[in-house]
Here is the input.
Amino acid sequence: MVLGTVVRALIFGKDADRKRRSAKATRIRSLPDRRVMADSYIPALATDGGRILWVGCREYTLDDYAALEAHGGEVWTTDIDASAERWGREGRHRTGDVCEADRIFSDMTFDAIVCNGVLGYGVDSPEQQKKALKALAAILRPGGRLLLGWNTDKIDDPVAAGLTDADFEPTPLGDQATRVRFDAVTHVYDSFVRRA
Here is the structure.
């Protein structure tokens, strides 16, 4: 990987990797699930405002933070990978395991949490998923929103398994139903509010 980066830089210039990554980010943001995120969920959460936690940072999530803050919200980010901090919210990012979110953010409460593409991508077993959801519930205010994105080809359905039952109530978000599935991709969104 490093050799490829050096070779591309020598042949195409030092911005070659940035341009390649940007093309990948553009492709990912054009997927149907990402369009629903950008066109429906982000505006709905932005309108609600408050303190919002984004779990899992990548280059293609960078534009979402400013959009979420459009109406005065405050976005915080977290990722287990320390190198992902470069894609987190500058000055409001903490590195750590989502299964310990209640420890990482023990000094904070959130009005909304977006946890998209984390279950099945490191938080794989039902036990890990349950622990992560409990940790997120602990830092989400009662009545606060959780948007959970996961893939049917990576994990079994966490809602059908009852992993959300104790702490979360399925609730539509914006103009979307409580569960949104896609024909073209394996992604699923589930939206909830935290039980009191």
Summary: The chain has two domains: 1-29, 31-194. The CA atoms of residues 94 and 134 lie 19 Å apart. The chain has six helices and eight strands. Residues 1-29 form one domain.
